[in-house]
Amino acid sequence: MKDNLKIVSVVGKPNIGKSTLINRICVSKDAIVHEEPMITRDRKYYKADWNGKNFYILDTGGIDFKPVDKLSLQILLQSKKAIDEADLIVFVVNLREPVSSADEDIAAMLRKTGKNIIFAGNKYDSEKGNYFTEDYLKLGFGYPITISAMHGIGIGDLLDEIVGNLNIIEEQLDKKDKDEKEIPKISILGKPNVGKSTLFNTLINEERVIVDDKEGTTRDTIDTILEHKDKSYRFIDTAGLKKDKIIEEDLEFYSKLRTLRTIEKSDIGLILIDSTCEVSRQDINIIDTCLKSGTSVIIIFNKIDIVTKEEIENNIRLLEKKLYFSNYIPILKVSAINKKGIEDIFKYIEIVLSERSKTVNENKLMQIFKEKSMESFIYKDGKRYKLKFIKQIGTNPPYFIVFSNLDISKNTSIKNFIQKTIRENFNFTGTPLRFKYKY
To answer: Which residue of 52, 89, 154, 155 lies most exposed, with the fewest beta carbons within 10 A?
Structure first.
């Protein structure tokens, strides 16, 4: 969210009082709606406040793992996205009913996320009622916080627990951000079985000092901080990215989302391509995903030890043909298993990191485009295009603002001309450029 408030997702099976609980918690019913392509059911964010702590409550439909129609499927997909997006999850059950298979399925799914879970038992309307509290201990979350969303019982205790957890999460994130802010993040990406983990293991075992070692849950990303020639790097091994499927298994779904989040947070993506296979559309998609996320790219052809030199060169030519829009990306050839070409990886990481943080002189930049305008004329809708002013306003990745006499925000040829001119003079090897256009 734009204001960086933490997100609390309320999840559970249908008809257990989630909406009533959210209405009880939130003073304002004005929802911020998050729309996803191909999904007609929206996720709604309600702003909440407790003892001066602001956060968002994310409202989703009830989770049904056996959708019988299109709407049920859409709700299931949105609920999974809401769970992945959440900083904290409130798992709600109905204490007036025994544990159901749906409750057990949801509990199993939540455990795989590795996130903080607050367990709440709803419809606890009075102490004299018949409840199945003990029955829910089998889900593995301990005793639930007993609440009645309808009557407002226990809501203060639940909110205290939510705010307490959010404070701990923020403290942990602040400490982590402070410790890791200066260390470049290098993610290892590619389709399944291209040798990502082999390269990861080779990198961290090449007589380097391992500073920190962390491993997540099953099929989660694994990252390691290591030192090489007195410089620190955080290398991140990720799950393989497959083509999209309509319905994915839980583990695969979370693995892909974690990988995509890793890309967004990375400085550089090392994109592995299997030299024994022809370059595929999915290889190109992974490269494109990195560039659109502002992540720099180094392409690595792996397994060169089991193919001929001619086969490798043919594959590289095929890649260059498909990457007509990205000829500034370096291409390396390695054998992770035989440790060939590993030093080149570190060499180009340093080159690309330098390019990401590079700034260009404003006067020189303007002079280059002034000379270009004298050499050739560009027209849009019968009018001559004139670049009035261009300036770099950011780095990591480099960011430029362009003032023109015409609106070129949707004119690909003029935008390509501007980017090509910059790259011809300043390179920006392996690094995407971002632009803001004004007229």
So the answer is: 52
**Region 1-23 average pLDDT:** 84
Question: b/e map of 105-136 (b: 16 or more CB within 10 Å)?
Answer: bbbebbebbeebbbbbbbbbbeeeeebeeeeb
344 CB burial (10 A radius; 0-12, 13-18, 19+): middle
Identify the H or E element spanning 53. strand 53-59
pLDDT(251) > 50: no
Give the pLDDT band (50/70/90) at residue 70. Answer: confident
Longest dimension (CA), the chain: 88
Position 46 scores a pLDDT of: 85
Q: What is the DSSP string of 99-162?
A: --HHHHHHHHHHHHHT--EEEEEE----TTS---TGGGGGGSS-SPEE-BTTTTBTHHHHHHHH
Residues 6+ apart with CB under 8 A from 248: 256
* 151 within 8 A of 232, measured Cβ to Cβ: no
Q: How far apart are CA 358 and CA 427, in angstroms?
A: 10
Alpha carbon distance 368, 227 (integer Å) = 40
Chain-wide mean pLDDT for the chain?
85
User: How far, in Å, CA of 254 to CA of 33, rounded?
Assistant: 22
- Say which range, 20-29, 322-331, 404-413, has the weakest mean pLDDT: 20-29
What angle do helix axes 101-113 and 250-265 make, rounded to 10 degrees?
30
Quote the pLDDT of residue 208.
37
Measure the CA–CA gap between 432 and 396, rounded to whole angstroms: 9
User: What pLDDT was estimated at residue 255?
Assistant: 58
* DSSP string for residues in 252-288: HHHHHHHHHHHHHH-SEEEEEEETTS---HHHHHHHH
193-221: average pLDDT: 61
Which residues are CB-contacts of 76 (< 8 A; sequence separation ≥ 6)?
A: 63, 64, 65, 67
Spatial separation of the C-alpha atoms in residues 346 and 228, rounded to whole Å:
8
The pLDDT value given to residue 215:
37
* Strand 268-274 versus strand 231-237 pairing type: unpaired
Rounded Cα gap, residues 141 and 132, in angstroms: 15
CB–CB of 28/140 below 8 Å?
no
